[in-house]
């Protein structure tokens, strides 16, 4: 059996010993092992020993040969490697060939890489782009690459966008970790669409909300399902504008069942999360995760009574024990590391999520029932969202505040809140829930009319 030590010995004994050793290896697995472990190649290594294996039937062997030829960086191997890049039947081998051409950083390879720009495999194309970006600034290269901004593959578009058409970051009035004083611990009474008109761009760190239901409760009457979706889209587009670069929006929704009006009709199930998702992505929210909020079955409405009796197929109605937390990030060229680095060390240290935490995307949390509001968040749900998706001192926004649970959790976790609520009754309820001065260590809560808030933003 050959070992790495044996391969090392052979390498140091020159090309003659190498040729002999290679000739002595007859089976595919020994050859693969040998080529995989060739490691660093001596200056006088004769790559032509490897060339015949470019036609080997094993794609593994072809892969390692291409990789080793690439290491040599010798222009005399450009042609065979380019042939593999174009013609090999295995995409991993082709990708390695393109990567080898790129690593050579040789201008002679530019036309070969251009030739591969029409490759149908996006992974190969990404590798070609990487190889060409070494020559960024070369007019012909830039012209060719810029055209790919219209490529059908979204990953390719994104790479080119970032390299050649980076979004202009707004000149924010504040460093990323800070925001306007008038958004700290404020509740505004009014339609959130109007309230958001006065909220500057790039000012909110995190939004967590549960929208009004479609015709399911008395506070939410919309002329049609489509009008309801448009209303939500309008609000979330405004939230997007107000959200800081690369920050999160977590939307709690679930499909909703409108009960049948009589035995002659059937109930209707509206898949809200699935219908709202494409609208969110279109307006610039990047989908990050779906978290499932799982409730005990005993806490939800039972739909099984009929089926339990008759057991007839097609009439099965499972009890809906889940809701979604759909996690989005304001699309950004910047990585999350950038967002984190915008905070000082102390804040990062103090915001760390220590101890046990939920590692899966299924969160088992009991629902909360409240005699004053029919659809309140459990505080535990808010706590998790806030600790996972914000830092201490951040502003957490809820456009549909209801009883103000998000605000309560935010304060307890040393963040501040910004809340909007349209209904006078619920605005008063928030006042009752959050008006307690002892809750506040920094700025006491303010309860404002839309006009007062707008005036405040203009000072
Ligand atoms: C599902 S509830 C939110 C409950 C909240 N998560 C809680 O824990 O209490 C939705 C709330 O949105 C409010 N709302 C509906 N349309 C609104 C609008 N256009 N602007 C502001 N609030 C609105 C409703 O009055 C309702 O209180």
Structure, explained:
With 459 residues, the chain is α/β, with parallel strands linked by helices. The protein has two domains: 50-164, Leucine-rich Repeat Variant, CATH 1.25.10.10; 181-458, Vaccinia Virus protein VP39 (Rossmann fold), CATH 3.40.50.150. The chain has 20 helices and eleven strands. It has helices at residues 4-12, 14-24, 28-36, 59-72, 78-87, 91-103, 110-115, 122-133, 139-146, 154-164, 192-197, 225-242, 272-282, 305-310, 336-341, 345-351, 379-389, 405-412, 424-434, 450-458; strands at residues 186-189, 204-209, 243-253, 256-258, 268-270, 285-294, 322-330, 362-364, 395-398, 416-421, 446-449. A nine-stranded mixed beta sheet has the order 8-6-7-3-2-9-10-1-11. A two-stranded antiparallel sheet has the order 4-5. β9 (395-398), α18 (405-412) and β10 form a beta-alpha-beta unit. The radius of gyration is 30 Å and the shape is elongated. 31% of the residues are buried. S-adenosylmethionine is lined by residues 191-192, 210, 212, 219, 373, 375-377, 400, 402-403, 405, 420-423, 426.
